[in-house]
Amino acid sequence: MGETHRYHVVAWWASGRTGIAKSDSAPNAIQFTAPPEFQGLEGRWTPEDLLLCALASCFTSTFHAIAGYARFEYTDLEAEVEGVVSKVDSGYSFSEIILRPSLTIPRKKERERAVELLQKAKALCLVSRALATAQKFETKVEVSDGFIGRLIADDKTNSDRTLR
């Protein structure tokens, strides 16, 4: 096997309706929430946003590297990514992800080459390729040793229970 690289991200639920994610490669943590459609907060990144952001940023980074290697000159690249989430029998799932790169080049005669390099970037984008990769799922469940709380019956009928 050839050269390998490892990347590491940790996410934890902070409180209420938000979580925090931290990467070994970035100094700042980010806050995230579920989408507002699923009782998340407005104005925060969602896992769905982060997935689409990963695809857009990977595509633009890959194109930049390919263009540099090919000595291809361009003046601007924007990658818009749209995801469609639909309800299926087993729950919600992305039913479609659309990548819309928009490339600005200085010379019309380079248009065909530009399209070829865009297609090559799509084929080589690591995140795009990862979306089709099977995932390993390694769970860990811990039980705390400390006192968390106790269930108390507030009346003799045990109908109203409170955690204290």
Task: Give an overview in words.
With 164 residues, this protein is of the alpha+beta class. It has 2 domains: 1-43; 46-133, GMP Synthetase, Chain A, domain 3 (2-Layer Sandwich), CATH 3.30.300.20. It is 26% helix and 30% strand. It is built from 3 helices and 7 strands, in the order E-E-E-H-E-E-H-H-E-E. It has helices at residues 47-70, 111-124, 126-130, and strands at residues 9-15, 18-23, 30-32, 76-88, 91-104, 151-153, 161-163. The strands form 3 sheets. The protein has a 3-stranded antiparallel sheet, with no helix packed on it. The protein has a two-stranded antiparallel sheet with strand order 4-5. Strands 6-7 form a two-stranded antiparallel sheet. A hairpin with a 2-residue loop joins strand 1 (9-15) and strand 2. Helix 1 (47-70) crosses helix 2 (111-124). The longest helix is centred in the middle third of the chain and has 24 residues, at 47-70. The radius of gyration is 23 Å and the shape is elongated. It starts with 8 loop residues before the first strand and ends with a strand.
Question: Quick recap of the structure?
Answer:
With 164 residues, the chain is α+β, with helices and mostly antiparallel strands. It has 3 helices and 7 strands, in the order βββαββααββ. The chain has a 3-stranded antiparallel β-sheet with strand order 1-2-3, with no helix packed on it.
